[in-house]
DNA sequence: AAAGTAAGCAACCGCCCCAAG
DNA sequence: CCTTGGGGCGGTTGCTTACTT
């Protein structure tokens, strides 16, 4: 079970991915789709662990990824979702199309956490920091199971009417904190009866905010990802592929591609990218 | 200008869950 | 029902870059 190495460690390369490796992986996925990740390195000619390939693809190479810092709206969504889900980064990422769990996790740890602390809000519990002592005494932060103990109200980054103040973050007054309906851990426990109640409370809380309330719908992300559009487009009309590739922000998503362009893309044997435009149905329909 | 420190982020590690046999 | 293997996830590490002294 679980602690087993996912692949033979001998001969498996680690560390930063090279442009050549990225190219191989992209070509393989685009040609064969996402299948058994363990088999991917071998089939793609990579000396990498299957897990590493999966992470590289999902966190960096996927065409539908946005790059760059989270904008303020996204940041606020992350905070709201974190107050609901805790450190379930994948769940949070699922509500932010184009963002990965890893990216959100990093952004949380490096930016949002600090902002919240600066505002006097405990980033773990979303409670005012003066309750921190009792919180820490009563909870074990290392236990992932405890992440569900977060208050459902959400934490506002100095928001009024759902918008962020430009540079965030002045410490909220006690009155403003009360207005934001922070609950003490005790009252949280008393008030929370079931996850269904919590969810319905959330829906009520955000019913006037379509953007936020959308997040509490478990089904669909707000925006369809370009990657999904690609698959849809291809299942409908092959001709749409050309326009899809034309619209894909490869330059933003793949910095290494820019590097290659700097040097002359064909120096790297990138003819295969031209082939993408001619790729046949099988490339995007592995089950066929 | 150089050295030291902090911040940011990509990548890895290892545990957990779940489906298949 | 048990075992096994693969994928997913959260936490952590370590490298690179930016900033400070």
Automatic annotation (TrEMBL):
The keyword Transport does not apply. Residues 9-61, 62-112 form the Myb-like domain. Residues 145-164 have a biased composition (Polar residues). GO terms for cellular component: nucleus. Pfam families: Myb_DNA-binding (PF00249). GO terms for molecular function: transcription cis-regulatory region binding. Keywords: DNA-binding, Nucleus, Repeat, Transcription, Transcription regulation. Residues 125-144 have a biased composition (Basic and acidic residues). One of its GO terms (biological process) is carboxylic acid biosynthetic process. SUPFAM superfamilies: Homeodomain-like. Residues 125-204 are annotated as: Disordered. The keyword DNA-binding applies. It is found in: Nucleus. InterPro entries: Homeodomain-like_sf, Myb_dom, Myb_TF_plants, SANT/Myb. It comes from the Eukaryota. Residues 9-61, 62-116 form the HTH myb-type domain. This is Uncharacterized protein. It comes from Erythranthe guttata.
